[in-house]
Amino acid sequence: MASVEDDGYNEYLYKILVVGDIGTGKTSIIKRFVHNIFSMHYKSTIGVDFALKVLNWDPRTEVRLQLWDIAGQERFGSMTRVYYKEAVGAMITFDVTRASTFEAVSKWKADIDSKVTIGAEEKPIPVVLLANKCDLGKEGFIKTANEMDKYCKDNGFIGWFETSAKENLNIEKAARFLVEHILKSDVKRNSPPQDTVQPGLATPPPPTSSGCCNK
Ligand SMILES: Nc1nc2c(ncn2[C@@H]2O[C@H](COP(=O)(O)OP(=O)(O)O)[C@@H](O)[C@H]2O)c(=O)[nH]1
Ligand SMILES: [Mg+2]
Hints:
Elements: E1 3-6, E2 9-20, H1 26-35, E3 48-58, E4 61-70, H2 79-84, E5 89-95, H3 99-103, H4 105-115, E6 117-118, E7 123-124, E8 127-132, H5 145-155, E9 159-162, H6 171-184, H7 187-190
Parallel strand pairs: 2-4, 2-5, 5-8, 8-9
Antiparallel strand pairs: 1-2, 3-4, 6-7
Bound molecules: guanosine-5'-diphosphate and magnesium ion.
């Protein structure tokens, strides 16, 4: 997305998708990451929600992550193409206690890969896999670490993390890992700079001609 360079100080604004089946913890992960709060009682997200997280990457670099919390119900519908537009990275979540949510991961990955790419070369966007709710114990976790490594390699994930929104485990680490990959890629060269980056605002895009972002 946007990059602003001034006297050697860099600001980047990256659109990051957070997808995965319903109830896997997408909203919880974002709330923990952005506001450092957790609740057992989030209402299910309707349509799409936005949040902004500012990372002071290094003394000369600020990274603003615009996190798109996409409702589980939207899966593979015509909506996702609009939501995915201009994303430069994604997190796919599953719930370690529910195997069906892991089975859905490859479908989410295929959905992203088919609808959003980077640059003229149409490279896939970097995607990190989050094995969430790891505080609930390992019994439900159906894969070993080695199997997960292999799964990521075979399916084009940049990596995976066991996370817990409840116990604040590995969420920031996973996000930073994703940002490292984005910074390393040539996103900057391929994106048109925007004039301003509004402090503290995650602005949804203007309504599209179909108007479906307002759903
Ligand atoms: N134990 C535990 N529960 C979690 C965790 N993350 C989310 N939850 C709970 O799982 C339910 C669904 O979470 P939510 O964030 O709404 O999932 P979403 O539908 O993917 O956005 C809620 O009751 C959360 O409190 C976690 O890391 N550990
Ligand atoms: Mg949600």
